């Protein structure tokens, strides 16, 4: 029996003890006179009242302490603790343990809330949370900037008042043009249902994709200008230097005996350099002006075999796969395969190896592979960057054009080292 129950039971017997003693006295001495009888009755009543008061304090005060601890927990004050050695030691111990756990959970919740707040504040995406009445309950600083309002004026307003109801009703994962109070442009709209306290809500995330695209466009222009500037400056520097040399040569009096030959040689170098620059710019124009693919159905096997026959420097082995008909632009795909096959033949010519081309269906796509026995993959990550080349006299257009054609068909291209032999495997895939 727990200590508190024993003390309550003992106190109950103590309260009844004066009456029991009075009855025992009467049984022992018989019925006394009236005065003694009243005196005994009064003594029994006083003793019973004193013991009852003592018992009341022993029972009620520990319960007051326990009630105070529970009230503190209910109000969220987890710092109060009870003395574990009292009559309610087990209950106080459990309440103290509960307070410790609740305090720890509160600290973890506050840490998580601070971390969530800092994360939301650092996001460039606007995050908004609406309750079951479609009223705004939470938003991050990016959302405040997008809506051009203070947090106090935005919280509690309905989505219709903020002109966001159409975004919540629209299909998920859409890119739309929209004008917000703080910004206009193209935005990626995503929303999802939420549950809070048993009620439904909605999460709305708005990403400004226009700004990302503008930044990518700016970086692309910077890369293009660096490449064009480097190539044009190299050509112009050579032409300017040679022109100055030729001007000095023909101004000499008297003219040197070999001035014609020197002039002819210098002009030839200037012409070659200008022609090289013209080819470079023509290659860029071809890359930049690639038209959209005109897709139609055709036999892939016939196209691959035609491309293989176009290569006259070596015999290209064609490992015929299953007959496949694809929806693509045959002219653009032929140009892409010619570029890949040309690179493979040039690589294999260094080692006297062979070139193999093959195709197969793989899931929802068709995969075209060209394998060579060349020296292997160049040590660079810029192989598909326009105007980057590892070959003397190369334009750096071929692989960039191949990738552009593949991506225009919602496919891709990759170069990787062969696992079964030295050389490179080029893979071009298109959706079936």
From TrEMBL:
Q: Which reaction does it catalyse?
A: ATP + protein L-histidine = ADP + protein N-phospho-L-histidine
Gene Ontology biological process: phosphorelay signal transduction system
One GO molecular-function annotation for this sequence?
Answer: protein histidine kinase activity
EC number assigned by the record? 2.7.13.3
Concerning SMART domains, the annotation shows: HATPase_c
Q: Can the keyword Ribonucleoprotein be found in this entry's annotation?
A: no
Top EC group = transferase
Which Pfam families does the record associate with it? HATPase_c (PF02518), PAS_4 (PF08448)
Q: List, alphabetically, the PROSITE patterns matched.
A: HIS_KIN
Membrane-crossing segments per the record: 7-29, 35-54
Task: Enumerate the spans annotated as Histidine kinase domain.
Answer: 227-432
Official protein name in the record: histidine kinase
């Amino acid at each position: 029996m727990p200590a508190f129950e024993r003390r309550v039971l003992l106190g109950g017997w103590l309260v009844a003890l004066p009456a029991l003693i009075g009855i025992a006295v009467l049984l022992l001495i018989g019925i006394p006179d009236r005065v003694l009888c009243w005196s005994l009755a009064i003594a029994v009543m006083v003793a019973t009242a004193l013991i009852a008061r003592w018992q009341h304090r022993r029972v009620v005060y520990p319960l007051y302490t326990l009630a105070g601890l529970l009230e503190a927990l209910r109000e969220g004050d987890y710092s109060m603790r009870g003395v574990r050695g009292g009559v309610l030691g087990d209950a106080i111990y459990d309440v103290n343990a509960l307070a410790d756990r609740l305090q720890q959970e509160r600290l973890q919740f506050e840490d998580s809330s601070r971390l969530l707040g800092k994360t939301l504040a650092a996001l460039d995406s606007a995050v908004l949370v609406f309750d079951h009445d479609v009223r705004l309950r939470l938003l991050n600083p990016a959302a405040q900037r997008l809506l051009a309002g203070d947090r106090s004026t935005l919280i509690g307003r309905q989505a219709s008042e903020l002109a966001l109801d159409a975004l919540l009703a629209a299909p998920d994962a859409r890119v739309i043009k929209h004008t917000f109070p703080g910004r206009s442009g193209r935005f990626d709209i995503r929303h999802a249902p939420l549950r809070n306290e048993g009620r439904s809500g909605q999460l709305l995330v708005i990403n400004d994709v226009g700004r990302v695209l503008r930044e990518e466009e700016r970086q692309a222009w910077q890369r293009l200008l660096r490449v064009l500037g480097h190539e044009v400056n190299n050509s112009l520097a050579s032409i300017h230097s040679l022109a100055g040399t030729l001007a000095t040569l023909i101004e000499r009096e008297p003219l040197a005996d070999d001035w014609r030959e020197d002039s002819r040689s210098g002009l030839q170098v200037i012409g070659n350099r200008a022609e090289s620059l013209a080819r470079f710019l023509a290659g860029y124009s071809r890359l930049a002006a690639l038209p959209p693919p005109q897709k139609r159905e055709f036999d892939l096997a016939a196209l691959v075999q035609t491309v293989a026959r176009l290569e006259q420097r070596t015999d290209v082995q064609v490992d015929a796969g299953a007959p496949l008909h694809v929806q693509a632009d045959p002219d653009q795909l032929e140009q892409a395969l010619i570029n890949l096959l040309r690179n493979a033949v040039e690589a294999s010519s260094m080692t006297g190896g062979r070139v193999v081309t093959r195709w197969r269906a793989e899931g929802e796509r068709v995969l075209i592979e060209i394998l060579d026995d060349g020296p292997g993959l160049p040590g660079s990550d810029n192989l598909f960057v326009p105007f980057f080349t590892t070959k003397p006299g190369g334009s750096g257009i071929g692989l960039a054009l191949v990738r552009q054609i593949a991506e225009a068909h919602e496919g891709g291209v990759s170069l990787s080292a062969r696992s079964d032999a030295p050389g490179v495997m080029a893979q071009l895939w298109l959706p079936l």
